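Quick note —
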Amino acid sequence: MKEFKELNLKPELLEAIRLMNFQSMTEVQERAIPIVLMHKDLVVRSKTGSGKTGAFLIPILQLTEPRGHPQALVITPTRELALQVSTVAQKLCHRSRIRTTVVYGGASINAQMYSLSRGTDIVIGTPGRILDLVDRGSLNLSRIRIFVLDEADLMLDMGFIEDIEQIMSLAPKDKQTLLFSATIPREIEQIARRHMKQDSARLVIGAEEEITVTTISHYYYMANGRTKFSALLAYIDRFKPKKCIIFTSTQRESEYVHRFLEGKGFSAIVMHGGLTQSRREASLQAFKTHANFLISTNLASRGLDIPDISDIINFDAPDDPKVYTHRVGRSARMGKDGRAFTLFGFDQKGLMEDTRIIANIKMNHIDLDINKFKDVELPFAERRREGDFRGRGGGGFRSGGRGRGGGRDFHRRSDSQGGDRDHRDSKRRGRFNYVGRGYGGRR
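Predicted structure written out below.
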């Protein structure tokens, strides 16, 4: 791989890259950056963890001068991803006079309006909040020169396509459009054809069928009920993960597994859409700095770029095999090795096979010494009779028979996909709002 110093970049940008300990470019960076620097429109399909954020931020900063008005707009589907991209952008431009502003629902819109009023060159944000700020006259897109859609396939899954089309129509027609995604569904292809120039470029990094990084080893174990907790401890005891994300299907289960691990003396943090934005940010910071385990819903399956994550544990196997690829993609970042371990219920053999085929991976059964932990005691107030566990492997509790696992905090798209439901989004779509405290309910 080529090194960044081989690019004709600004000295202050090269110095910022050096301070971030970036030397060699990843494949997507090596191939995409020169195209972006040529001012060409670009569609990039590249697997999770391949370095897509740097592939668009570095050339944007090279092409941007400090002028005090928005010249580049980066749209992300979730708050967490917006914050992640913003953090990288701030590190890359801290030796220049280029200013960045991040905007998203769940935070003070007045503070974001004030930040924009002071002048900014690059805006990073979620669709609903961007449109809110445009409506209020605080964000002017008429001089946008570079337009980026990050995680475009997730935008589609979350129902943001109409918002994206509206935002794109507000920016100049001659803007440079960059679209980055782990997969390119037909609807995303149609957007590219409608809004990109005829000479736009397309990059597919890796084989078309390769959507999971090849440096991850995949393991599974069949378990239900209390045995899932025994298997979890047996895996931790055997591999001793240094930094690990444990995924559950619901907020309640995230809290439960968190209390369970804390009760066993592990350094564990919980994060899900039922927490306030400040609590979520604090949890993420604690995981980055000292905690060994982060227990989360799918909220953490995209947008987290923490280089030293060694293991991903799916305490609850995802119903959608495509979600599996995004979860495990939090490990093995930038070419490093990683492990993924999934607990499947005894009636989920079909799901396991679908996951193996769609993710195009070899999934190995692992023998765990669960007898060592077979009499594990579940914690205090959350202790349940073993019959209370669902037998299908989801691990959820019965609660009045309301669907899988029951309870109103189960299986809301807003939580599983990052919770970007600010006031505008929830009002427009009539969906649930996770802004502020608790679960919000309907607007």
